């Protein structure tokens, strides 16, 4: 998990490297819209992942990928599910939304909407406008509607590091956050549909499965 700012050229969630930071921590934590009730803790059809008995639907993953394909600078329209790069990246982001939200909720204080808005205004000022920010983040796999989530997760990851008495931009802070996220994911009994890969707690990201081709 590298620790650069959102708008650097490094990606936060890709198919080849661990995310820099993790999920949106906005308003009421762990109220992630894509999570739905689950009749059990198993991976039912149409489920991408399950956390704490709540599922992330495949529909949410497909919607995230579709939004990215339409974003300027995003993945190309002919990106194929067989390669699963965009899909696996989307699942990683959605899982991290829930994991980081719970981690911050457990440790506090929450990241307020006003903090996210201020961070967005600063990034737009630094890059020269909202369009340039959107383009920079699309190149990192973030659709326009995910910008606040990304900025919120950067604030959240720094807050998690601070609760451990560390700076997120240092190796010690990075290691501390990894430990927090691994423990939180375990507490949530995270399970991921193998069509998208396997969860790597050390990287806080999905790794390609040995057989990654979707079965349906």
């Amino acid at each position: 998990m590298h620790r650069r700012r959102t708008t650097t050229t490094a990606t936060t969630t890709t198919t080849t490297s661990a995310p820099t930071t993790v999920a949106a921590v906005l308003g009421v934590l762990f109220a992630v819209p894509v999570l739905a009730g689950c009749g059990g803790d198993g991976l039912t059809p149409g489920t991408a992942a399950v956390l704490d008995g709540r599922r992330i639907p495949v529909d949410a993953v497909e919607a995230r990928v579709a939004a990215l394909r339409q974003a300027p600078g995003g993945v190309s329209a002919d990106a194929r599910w067989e390669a699963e790069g965009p899909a696996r990246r989307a699942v990683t982001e959605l899982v991290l939304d829930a994991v980081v939200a719970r981690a911050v909720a457990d440790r506090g204080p929450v990241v307020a909407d006003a903090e996210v808005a201020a961070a967005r205004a600063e990034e737009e000022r630094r890059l020269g406008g909202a369009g340039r920010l959107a383009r920079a983040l699309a190149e990192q796999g973030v659709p326009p509607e995910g910008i606040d989530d990304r900025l919120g997760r950067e604030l959240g990851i720094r807050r998690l590091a601070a609760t451990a008495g560390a700076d997120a931009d240092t190796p010690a802070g990075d290691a501390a956050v990894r430990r927090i996220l691994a423990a939180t994911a375990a507490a949530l009994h995270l399970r991921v549909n193998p069509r998208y890969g396997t969860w790597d707690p050390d990287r806080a990201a999905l790794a390609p499965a040995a057989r990654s081709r979707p079965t349906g």
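The helical segments are 58-70, 85-107, 113-127, 130-138, 147-163, 171-187. The CA atoms of residues 73 and 135 lie 6 Å apart.
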